[in-house]
Automatic annotation (TrEMBL):
Its EC number is 6.1.1.10. Residues 34-425 form the Methionyl/Leucyl tRNA synthetase domain. Pfam families: tRNA-synt_1g (PF09334). This is Probable methionine--tRNA ligase, mitochondrial. Belongs to the class-I aminoacyl-tRNA synthetase family. Keywords: Aminoacyl-tRNA synthetase, ATP-binding, Ligase, Nucleotide-binding, Protein biosynthesis. It comes from Jaminaea rosea. GO terms for biological process: methionyl-tRNA aminoacylation. One of its GO terms (cellular component) is mitochondrion. It is an enzyme of class 6 (ligase). GO terms for molecular function: ATP binding; methionine-tRNA ligase activity. It catalyses: tRNA(Met) + L-methionine + ATP = L-methionyl-tRNA(Met) + AMP + diphosphate. Residues 1-30 are annotated as: Disordered.
Amino acid sequence: MLDDNSASPASPGLWALAPNTPAPRSSAPPPSPYYCTTPIFYVNAAPHIGHLHSGVLADVLTRWHQLRYNGWSRDSPAPLGRGKTRAILATGTDEHGLKIQRAAQLAGKDPKGFCDDVSQHFRRLADEAGLGYHTFIRTTEPRHRDAVHAMWRALEDGGHIYKGKHEGWYSVSDEAFYPLAQTRRCRDDKSGEEWVEAIETGQRVEWTSEENYKFRMSAFRQPLIDWLEANPSAILPSTRHVEVLEEVRSGLDDLSISRPSSRLDWGLRVPGDDTQTIYVWVDALVNYLTVTGYPWTTAAASGEDSAAALLHRAWPASHHIVGKDILRFHAIYWPSLLLAANLPLPRQIVAHSHWTMEKAKMSKSRGNVVDPFHEMQTKGVDVVRCYLCRMGGGLATDSDWSEGTLLEFERKYLQGQLGNLASRIRGKKILARLPQADEQAGGKTATVSRPGPSASSYSAKLDSLLCSTPDDFSLRLERCEVGQAVEVVLNLLGACNSLVQSAEPWSPATAQEVVEAAVYYTYETLRLTASLLGPVMPVKMRELKQSMGLQLGEEKDDAWEEVIRVRDEVKVPLSGKMKPLFPRRDD
Ligand code: MSP
């Protein structure tokens, strides 16, 4: 992990500046960093695999942008090209509100102590999963309180807040108000118990009738429509973009943005009015600004090369990664608040689908949640990360969690394809057939050349796959389709395995040029895989690179050009042992 101000060996280069370290001077202003966020997690209960899912997707995208691009231009969403990226990933915990207040009461703890405890679990989750975060933000931090208050004042100064009476249904579990039409009455025939619940989430709602502050969200209906129409990929996947646009077109109500402190004590008070506590979603959403140093007073004072100025340039965020259940808050409430405060809107909001358990939504009350710590300890961190990405990385459809499928995925693709190729290339019988041995710093290597155009059709197929894979992979990640991007690499590995299988380079009967072609393509396939899947499995792909005698070159200025350049020849290490990349469980 990367802490606010420190670099970690697990994620080299994600955050290249130490605090207050001036960036190298150049005539052009430094580019905006890539800035990606995870949702901040409620601390009412321990983390589950769905939380890890949001975190891993954001981490993969951040590492990918670090590898691929030189920052992000403020004026255009297009990547800038060569050079060193500064990529910022932010994650953290959402600690205010009735939901947390009640969870603390139930645990018999004071809210702050309760939040300190549970927040630690989320931080440990991010650390153990290797999330290269720059900031772990907690909404109970003073810097966040200051940012929320600054936002409130900006809304107030713009005349967007008024005091009014609010009556309606509130779900503590969702921390959301629901209009009557979005609720239904329910009755349990056995017990006779009656309740009202939100149709969308199935969570119970409570009737509230109170004085509170309201935000004139209705005034932002047309500006929101204009934004969504002008930016057809503002929300991914596109089906969600269409849904949000329809919802906005159908009309926006004003939003209650505070609750009486007598009801909601655990939260930030409204500036200048202690009798009201700020609505937890307004509080929570501002975290994305807090991370960048909002309201940016230090940045303005410290010069454009300072770390504070770099963070300021990180706004607007490049990507907000969120689950589909919280899209409305991010795609309607958040842009309205930003527009009202005259702040730029995030570039893209990515809504991912959910993990289910036997097709049912995971929830603590159903007792069907998967423990991410247990999964990482028993299957390995990178195996879990890759499985989450490949099987759950599709944005459109939910995926059902199954231990059997995870083990099958590991056996078939990670051990059977990737691990198999990596160990085959070190096979004694194969290495013994390689001709020229050069002495290198790290030991002996054999030089093997790229087969010419007249080589077998298998070689030709692999050659063209090696050339097209980086673009195919990039295309998927540009659409944030992480699962599809992983699949592109798995296809390359599958094709390479087939080539090796039919070439039989271990057999003494196999012709010399066929042995060398098999070794060449295996090496190049693994080299490309190690780079492309580096964001998904950072530790394993580093191990793979090391075992292949490759430079760990992400820091190089032209890293991407190096990654995609198909080599004329490769240098295969002849010495050195390699442990299996993905050991079999019975090994
Ligand atoms: N605190 C709010 C977010 C505030 S962001 C300004 C919140 N927290 S949460 O802990 O309930 O959820 C955090 C993330 O976990 C959300 O993106 C949510 O979609 C995700 N997941 C929760 N359950 C999930 C699954 N079963 N599957 C995949 N992701 C899911 O909402």
